[in-house]
Amino acid sequence: MILVRFLGRLVISFLTYLGELVDLTMEVVRSLIFGKFRWSQFMQQIVEIGFKSQIVVIVTGAFTGSVLTAQALFQMEQFRMETMGGGLVGVGMLRELGPTITGLMLSGRVGAAMAAEIGTMKVTEQVDALRSMDVHPVDYLVTPRFLAMAISIPLLIGESVGFGILSSIFIGVEIFDVPYAYWNFHLVARTELIDIIISMIKGGAFGMLIVVISCHQGLKAKNGAVGVGKGTTNAMVFSALAILIVNFFLTMLLNIFFPLSFA
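Request: output the structure for the sequence above.
Response:
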């Protein structure tokens, strides 16, 4: 009975949490349709989310591409299939590693910052002050971040994938001595428009998860600095877990409708 009660409480807490996330998402949608657009907040978040995340994303993408290339070629050398490395890296970075790694890095850098900033405003009663001035907190705090993420994450994923592919060319051609012409031929031949579309679909989903989960943790913060710290940690952990779980289902679904074609 103790186990049953524990599992019951766990399921109820999880469903309650999902309901709160859906409710916040609906408030963001209403804000996008009926709310006031705040240019200053939007541009500030473009800088925070997009511009300041570039170095982290570029370095992560470059070394992810390098590791993927090295591991693939170590195995492909046994079958004399090294020239296929370009196609494997291109598809792997676009369909999987580019959006996933970028989302995980943003959940740590951007998601934690969102939760900490909004959580601090919540425990110091600045959110209540916004309401007293007839400013909806979602309009002012969440919607600009949502829009900034929607614009920034496709560009960041593009940078991550681009530098990952460039680093793979260097590793494959300069270190493993694969002829550049063969590498580039398979890279171009095996990478299609649908791979880019899948990357953007995943990136959009991951960006929405990061903003909604992180802002929700900030808006629910309480008990002073301890609550802010807990909310910041939860924002990063929950966002990362959500990205990994949703990525699995998106991968299964998208590959059913858009399977890889190496014919």
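The radius of gyration is 21 Å.
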